[in-house]
Amino acid sequence: MRFQWPGFRKTSEKPTGQPSAQVTEDDRSPGSLRPLWIPFFLRRTNLILFICVFLAIGIALGALYGVSVRNSGLCNSNTKYYYLWTYGPTAVSTLLAALWAQVEYRSKQMAPWNLMAQEPQPVGKSLLLDYTDPMNIISLFTSAKEKHFIVTTAIAGTFFIKLITVLSSGLFIALPTALKQSHSPLIARNVFYGNADAGVSAKSASVAYGTLAYSLQYPEGTTPLYAYQSFDSPAASSFIVTAEVNVFSADLTCEVGNVIENTVDTTTGEQNPLLEPIPRRIQTYTEQANVWISTDTCDNLFVAVQEGQSMSWNGSTCTNLENGDDANRFIIIFGDWTSTTRPFERDISALSIRDGSSNGVSNNDVSTEVIDTSTDDSLVSIDDPNDSNDDQLVSIDDPDTSDDASITIEAPEASTTMPNIINNGQSTSLSASTNKPSTPTTSSTADDSGSLTAANFTISESTFRPKVALSCKPHYKIQRASVTLTKDDDGYWSPNISIPVGGNSSQLAGISGWTLTKGFAQSIYEAEEEINEHLLDFLRTAGPEGDVTSDAAVLNGSLSQIFQRVAVQYARSYLMRPTQEDLSGEVVLEETRLYVRTVPFSIIEATLAFLIGIAGFLYVKSPTVATSRDPSSIGGLSTILARSPELMTSLEGLGTHELQEFRNRLQHREFKTSVQPHSSSPFAITESGTSDMEPASSVPLTEDKIKWWRPFAVSITGRILIAVSPIAVVIALTLLLAHSQDKNGIATIDKSLAVHYAWTYIPVLVMVGVQLLFGMLDYAIKIFNPYHNLRVGAAPARTSIMENHLAKLGLHALFVAVGKLQYTVVAAGFAMMLSSFLTIVTGGLFYTEYTQTHQEVQVQRMGWFNTSHYVSSEGVKQANLVLAYNLTEPTWTHDQLAFPKLQVRANGEVSKNASELQVVVPSLRGNANCSVSSPEFMQWAIDNPNLSEGSIPTINSTVTIMGNKDWSGTGYFGHWNSIIMDFEEAPPIVASIGRAVNKTITEVTALSCWPYIEQLDVSVTFNLPSYTISNEKPPVPDKSTSKVFSNSGPTSFDDFTLANPNTGDRTSEELFGVFGLAVYGKDGVPISELIGDTNIHKLNDAVSRVYSRVVAQIMDCRRAASDDASDINGTMVSTDTLRLKQSTISTHILQGLLLAMLVCSAVTFCIMDTRKLLPKNPCSIAAVASLLAGSDLMTSNIIPSGSEWMSDRELEKKVFKGLLFRLGWWQDEDEPGVSRFGIDIGKAGGGA
């Protein structure tokens, strides 16, 4: 059978007009021109270069790992370098794999030549030896079995580099890291200085009580025992800051006092030898116990105890010590009074209502506080003889009995009309006498108008019996100490102070321990108004488990604790000033750092060590001589086969036969390459032994009996798999990305290494699988390409017999194929090049991120609010602590809102890691509901005879001093007046603010307020498990749900006033009610911006804001059980849930790569038809030789002697220039009917 292409015919002559290939003696003399050929990538210099590269990578990784361990990471995982550390390692290993692929290929290709160069080899180890076509895993074991270790190590190197490629995708990881930085710049915000303010407010004591009684957070710069310089770091991500700063501490050294004298006599008010009189509203003539005590170190200490009081405290001086602060002592005493009668009137100064501005009192010594132990109050109604319409009411205590009191009125005249006494609800008629009764009686005096001015109680034989007394010496010190601030989840900095043992200490100039004691006493006294707590309440709060009134040890501990806390707050408020000083300290930053993972690093290092050993083995064992030239191309191999006529004769007629036929025919023969380096002898394959078979041409195969070679990549199964795999991966990536975006992550994962390696390496392994499929396709196309070119038509040598893309690097082969317009090679090569990026990009495909997860839960409302009474002294105290001194808000309040207590029901699975609860909850908010006072109301107020002057300030009227006794009468004022009048238009509250000169009002703005409490739904985010509310996520009220909870809101604030946070000079202002907080509290507005018609909106907003905040704290203390325990739908949010997410960018890149690869494979399959192209695998020497046997190409006329020493360029220019080649059936012209299948020379012309 003759197969012939139209227009071509077989020829054994050179093409007409083409020069003959003349090979000169110099061309044939290898000794004079060139040595034996060694593949470039197997040359020892290049193998040494591989060793150096492997070693350099290992050293670099080791250095990086050392830095990673030593410095808690390599660096900040800056987004700028994200792609470098994500894709860089895989890119390096991918490039290394491309280079090593040539080492592997050449080791496989040269295996039979290396063996034949050593000694004669059977056909299975020479002509039929093929390691390039089988899968690497098969070639690995086969070569190891045959002890062809050069091939084994080269293939192993490929596997090792592939392992590095996979591991490098997870080599680096970004982790949140606590990074410690020493000698970091810090800034000190304040400094201690010795200039204590003369005026002391309630702030120090109030803050100390709030932290002690309510566990509220300590203000910045303080702890229970210390006040320290505030400092911070400019680094926003710092969460631990340590610096050495000045630290203040104070304490009392107390001794138990021994009573040396105890007398009872009459005194005026609260006088004692060391104290200035503190102005009171009522001065009384009463009995007091004068007690003198001594201690082991101090003599003649005095303390006065008012009649009926169980305790007292004041300052005194040790008479045995030199006068000065060091001789002063703080004295506290507890005891019991006994008497046959009870006092008619007590000193009610501790309960008199004063404005918060009254803390302007300046005392040079310690004040005395009077504590009333009575529990019953009786109202005394005294009729004014000159006014039948007005009663005078006096509040008295009845500690012992509810019997009627007997009172005698002392007046200028001998007798008066007796008043009615209402004692415990009973009315009693009193008698009057000008004589002091001999029996226990009490008397009062009246002025000329008949008004009661004072009451003097005569008690027979009153006795005070002391139970415990302490004498305490105050002291303080300032030391350098290490202060560490740690930031919690709510943004609060918690201090930890380390005081060096035996360190030096100092004191501030002009500030003694006694200075602190005076501040302590004054602040305790002032706090009585704002938080309604006496020193005894402080002591009992500090020592709840003991009896401070009788146990000296318990009293000592409680008093020291109270003194320490108040002194610390005093130091923070009065002994520090702002500053901006540079410090140096240690900062721990929360930074996302780049780490080298230990396991991948260790495996890669071990793998690199193996690769160094492999390259070293190849360096030692790889033969330095094997062939005269590169035998990888058909043309290159033909030059060697042309010098081997015996071999070619043995293979004639086997062009269509399977390789087993070769094995059978040549099984008793051995083959060897014969060459003498640097000589003129030809390079040839010689054989020894005899053939057991007749020439195959005697048994020709028809075309229908040929088993055509179809490697897996071009088989139907292979094509389907190659086409389906990128489509399947693209679909999977698309679905996973959609799921990741919809569910805020693909899945919740833990931090275990196994899970990390799973999502890191499984995707890479999938991409490696896809890459292997396309690698098989690329390999098959490059094998088929020259034969395909020969089969489709006459082809020149450069695109056919001299073509071998496998011997080139992938990128090089791609460019060569583009230049030759070999589209199938271009498509397959481009797909293979793109597949190299799959593993690179997959390294950044998945990542983990702490994200929010939501879980629907049922939330139970635990009670509601009391609707019967709104005024609460406890609530006002709480408001003062929170609003005036910026202490933390109680749990169930926030700003202007009060929430019911909530509890998440534990039905079903409730996340224990939840950090937030999102819920819409009904809440309460006070509304001042103010508007500008109408002229009609103001005129009514001026004309109304039932309102005293100053009740409602008006222009030119006299301003009433409502609390600040230090106010000069000139300056600003702000009043909060409750109006109780039977007048339809009279508002419950009038809030007025203005200016006065010498107590005459010159400017005033008034608001009329009708307060109420509203209920509305509020969207709240609670931090779990504390149920606190972050300012970063404030509650959001739904105004559309607002409804009236109560038509009236609090109008007054019980028995004491709202605080004024101003600690400065108050002689030019008197702010009462909400105005102290409106001006100096949270979100305060300067008073000058609240006065005048142009500022009416600011005034209204300020009053409303403060009122709502106060009411929120009041309602928090007015809770009640509720029958309505209905559940509320809520959502628990976990913000520390580690979710696996998919990168959108990486996904789109991979989708693009895979789709482009799919298109390339389709182009390849469409253009190149590999059916009936090759009857056998052409990768062995015998397979190629069988296609050349009997060809004119093998004649010396075409390939002259010495051609086997030429390079490819020389062969193309001198030997094959002008020749055209093709693959197909050739008819033997000498023997009609005999044909062969193979490669031969054809030229354009007529039929053959």
Helix content: 25-40%
Low-confidence stretches: 1-33, 268-284, 342-459, 693-698, 1243-1248
Shape designation = elongated
Distance between the termini: 13 Å
Mean pLDDT: 80
Radius of gyration: 52 Å
Tally of DSSP β-strands: 45
Structural class: alpha+beta
For the sheet with most strands, the description reads: 10 strands, antiparallel
Number of helices: 26
Please state roughly what percent of the residues sit in beta strands, choosing from under 5%, 5-15%, 15-25%, 25-35%, 35-45% or over 45%: 25-35%
Can you describe what's shown?
With 1248 residues, this protein is α+β, with helices and mostly antiparallel strands. Among the domains are: 35-171 and 597-626; 179-255 and 474-587, no CATH class; 714-845 and 1143-1167, no CATH class; 853-932 and 973-1135, no CATH class. The protein contains 26 helices and 45 strands. Strand 29 (893-894) and strand 30 (897-898) form a beta hairpin. The two termini are 13 Å apart. It holds the Pfam family DUF3433. Residues 14-23, 414-430, 676-691 have a biased composition (Polar residues). Keywords: Membrane, Transmembrane, Transmembrane helix. InterPro entries: DUF3433.
